[in-house]
Amino acid sequence: MDRTAQLTARLPEREIAYDPPASAPSLHVRAAQVLDANWTGSSTVPSRSLYPHQWSWDSAFIAIGLRHLSPLRAQTELETLLAAQWGDGRIPHIVFNPSVPLDAYFPSPDFWRSSTAGRAAGAPRTVQTSGIVQPPVHALAAWLVHCADPGLSQARGFLAGVYPRLAAWHRYLLHRRDLGGGGLVSVMHPWEQGMDNSPCWDAPLSRVTPAPARSFRRADLDHGAPEDRPTDLDYGRYVRLATDYRDRSYADGDGEFAVEDPAFNALLIASEHALARIAAELGAAGTARHARAERLTAALVKRLWDAASGMFLCRDLRGGELIPERSVSGLVPLVLPGLPRPVAAALVRTLCGPHFGLGESTAMVPSYDLLGEAFDPHRYWRGPAWFNTSWLLERGLRAHGERQRADALREAVLSLADATGFAEYVDPYTGEACGATGFGWTAALALDLLHERPGHTVSPTATGAFDTSDKGGDRG
């Protein structure tokens, strides 16, 4: 029995929605092998070594790829994550596997103390989680997973089950995290934004007194090169922020770090559009959610667009100003369908210009300004190219009519995922693998791109870059 047959024989026949595309069966099988190796029975770990639990936005991206192998498993991925949602609506950024030793990852469950410190916020008692959040990709993932097999989704009541939880998640963000009063969501820790070590955080973090080095042990250095990871000083500041948040019983709004981030808000807007689609599928009106997404898009442009930089910038709410650092986060809003045309055009120019070099000096999108003083091609989020952000920008380019650039980026993602053994991230110049290999979202998003037809366009509907009306791709 070949490997594809082994992977599919374990699952009910109903689950298998697609055959491997004839164009690249070997890459398809290898991506499936990574996802199978990282599957725990109810969710997928990003990496067996470095990240041995369930991560929030990882699971959303992983579900988007899993839908091509097993819509049932993709649905289960999201349902498992949402089962750990807190009473106040937040989806924690880590759901801990109790079978994993405490010293395998830090901060571990005994640091977060979710069931005690998070009691006032409604943390679950039956599972241990972190207390912070990650970017809200979940409603978008749920909609795409539904579209992979609507019959199975309807039979299981998938959308009806996840919709109330996703709506509560968005309410939490929009009502509890509008710390600047301008309609946008704020992150209270660099880990919440997902791009943990970005130079965008250097100025806001400089105000934070680091936790003593002796108060924590960095398990990440057991699995990654120190020169590729955050410095001890930065890590001490991360620990201090998380400790203070925990000691406030995870009450929002009073921390030293509060930043409005363009990627976090763009993904919320994309998920608001998706949530409107889900509501309509369930027989409810989605117009109010589409209207809210449009208002959020206007607020994003008003508060974070910087015409001089040709991109969106982060806003430091404690300092009161835009942060003058060019990060890939400021390009991610290209996925939105409602961007003013001049803004979308400027983003494409910036993406392909000297600061990010796409198609000229880089094949995949670097995480930080190539010309910036803090640029480092290997250090975590300070320069390397990541597969999830390149996937998002491939979608954005395609949605705004940049088919040739989108096709080239698609090909680069697939080629580098294959060549690096599905690396966590890569050197943007050389494509050298960095971080963990066999990485979950790298395999999943490569799989998603394999099921897309090169050269196709995306319909300019309310879901923009993630519209599924153009099915394109070599689907079985």
Automatic annotation (TrEMBL):
What Pfam families is this protein classified in? MGH1-like_GH (PF22422)
Listed GO biological process terms: oligosaccharide metabolic process; protein N-linked glycosylation
**Which SUPFAM superfamilies would you find in this protein's record?**
Six-hairpin glycosidases
Q: Which keywords, in A-to-Z order, does the entry hold?
A: Glycosidase, Hydrolase
- Chain positions covered by the region annotation Disordered: 456-476
Mannosylglycerate hydrolase MGH1-like glycoside hydrolase domain: which residues? 51-442
Database matches in Gene3D superfamilies: 1.50.10.10
Q: Which InterPro entries match?
A: 6-hairpin_glycosidase_sf, 6hp_glycosidase-like_sf, Glycoside_hydrolase_63, MGH1-like_GH
Family the entry assigns = Belongs to the glycosyl hydrolase 63 family.
How is this protein named in the record? Mannosylglycerate hydrolase MGH1-like glycoside hydrolase domain-containing protein
Which organism encodes this protein?
A: Streptomyces cellostaticus
